[in-house]
Design brief:
The protein has 202 residues and is an alpha/beta fold. It contains 5 helices and 7 strands, in the order E-H-E-H-E-H-E-E-E-E-H-H. The protein has a 7-stranded mixed β-sheet with strand order 2-1-3-4-5-6-7.
Length: 202
């Protein structure tokens, strides 16, 4: 039996070319034949409201919703930062934690303000990523991964985005914003989740 894998095509339910490039890089690094493209006409489609209380529900709901407008497989992710000492915040509201349209700096400032006075284990947190693949309104696969770390008092590093500058990864002694791209792809929640997805698709 041939070991050659046929090329699979997946459409990302997003208008974000930066997120697409990140997933394409992950696929290339894994040596998998995957054609990843943004879902055609995404901006003109009825919008899915990500209002569910869990990452899994938002990811699955988004993938199933947008897959109804396409004959091919569609994938969507939902990810964010969870701080147990803040009752799970920012959680599913990670992108909107400091209000609609807030900058990364504003979101970090709000997080550090909420953590003021907390020490040690109270500053523990983890990133979560859930990815769902759906076709014609039905979920085909749901995978999730997490990565543990702690929140620093001050930002460090100029790479990454979101909460990366304050998310310290003890295994490497750096924040996610201090990691090289290939390091982050290896250890990040999104990198781990995408590699799990590839295994499922294989």
């Amino acid at each position: 039996m041939s070991s050659e894998r046929t090329t699979k095509r997946l459409y990302l339910a997003s208008r974000n070319p930066g997120k697409l490039r990140e997933f394409q890089t992950l696929a290339e690094a894994a040596g998998r034949k995957l054609e990843l493209e943004l879902l055609p006409g995404f901006v003109a489609l009825p919008e899915y409201e990500e209002s569910a209380p869990t990452f899994a529900e938002n990811s699955a709901g988004k993938a199933m919703h947008y897959s109804r407008f396409c004959n091919a497989a569609v994938f969507a992710d939902d990810s964010g930062l969870v701080i147990p000492a803040l009752d799970g915040a920012p959680g599913v509201l990670s992108a909107r934690y400091a209000g609609p349209g807030a900058s990364h700096e504003q979101k970090i400032a709000k997080l550090l303000s909420e953590l003021q006075g907390k020490k040690g284990a109270e500053r523990a947190g983890y990133f979560v990523c859930v990815i769902t693949v759906a076709k014609k309104g039905r979920a085909m696969a749901v995978v999730s991964e997490k990565v543990d770390g702690e929140i620093l008092d001050n930002p460090r590093g100029s790479g990454g985005f979101g909460y990366d500058p304050v998310f310290y990864f003890p295994a490497l002694g750096k924040t996610f914003a201090e990691l090289a791209a290939d390091e982050k792809n290896t250890f990040s929640h999104r990198g781990r989740a995408f590699r799990r997805l590839i295994e499922v698709l294989d």
